């Protein structure tokens, strides 16, 4: 899956996601009329589909109020606190500091370039431990 984001300040967005967040550059192209695009490697992708109640609950847990736009990016990191600090120093705005969630991850929320909102999350339990916790499972 590839997510395509239009960024008014292309250079700031590239500097943030490639240089500050550390997403490796896979390819970059330019074209007529100053057209530019960079493709950054973001690891494996999943598509998380949440109903409005779930979206509200995540906002309440991570931030304490409703703030998320319709789309929000989430990146798993090894150290939420350190990465949050690094990204704030690189120009992100902290919406909520690292917070332990009911699903045992350490999440922070940031407003970042290109008009995006970002959750950084660090899993505090391994997959097997999470799969046996209350509220986890699949619908299928």
Automatic annotation (TrEMBL):
Residues 1-123 form the VOC domain. It holds the Pfam family Glyoxalase_6. Gene3D superfamilies: 2,3-Dihydroxybiphenyl 1,2-Dioxygenase, domain 1. InterPro entries: Glyas_Bleomycin-R_OHBP_Dase, Glyoxalase_6, VOC_core. PROSITE patterns: VOC (PS51819). This is VOC family protein.
